[in-house]
Design a protein that fits this description.
Belongs to the bacterial reverse transcriptase family. By secondary structure, the chain is an alpha+beta fold. The protein has 5 helices and 4 strands.
Length: 164
């Protein structure tokens, strides 16, 4: 289906289903792409409608949580880029005398997120029941991986923009 051609009718229907709580999170398609080290990186590909809703909810979450982030944090934050991160790093090393750089990689971060801990964290600031229920639906959605449908009890599927 060419979603673009039908967007005039589909998007209002999508918003109505979302607001009423009737939207059901579809299964995520997992694909594996090669990483630089020869290993494979799993990515979860949502449907067009799911991607639209996830983007909208992400924008709300960014507004709610932005003030909690460390100012020197640049990863996947609105208005921040890898170029700004490099400029900050250069400034710290060249002008402020800092000589230590830590390179850390959290293995399987997205795949190991505890759903209950995530829910408790969200409950601290997210009071909108529609958003909370939608996030729960996404957490419970199935993942289609190599023809097998699985229902993970932990983790979130990293999307195509994920650093995972």
């Amino acid at each position: 289906m060419d979603y673009h051609k039908q967007r005039e009718t589909r998007i209002p229907q999508l918003l109505t289903a979302f607001k009423s709580g009737n939207y059901r999170a579809p299964n995520i398609l997992r694909v594996h792409i090669p990483k630089g080290d020869g290993k494979l990186r799993p990515l979860g590909l949502p449907t067009v409608e799911d991607k639209l809703l996830q983007t909208a909810v992400t924008r709300v979450l960014q507004l709610v949580y932005e003030d909690m982030f460390y100012p020197g944090s640049y990863g996947f934050r609105p208005g921040k880029s890898q170029h700004q991160a490099l400029e900050e790093l250069s400034s710290q090393v060249s002008w402020k005398g800092n000589r230590n750089i830590i390179d850390a990689d959290m293995q399987n971060y997205f795949g190991s997120i505890n759903h209950q801990c995530l829910r408790e964290f969200l409950d601290l600031r997210i009071k909108d029941g529609v958003i909370r229920k939608m996030i729960d639906k996404w957490l419970k959605a199935g993942v289609l991986d190599n023809g097998q449908l699985i229902y993970p009890t932990e983790g979130t599927p990293p999307g195509e923009r994920s650093p995972h």
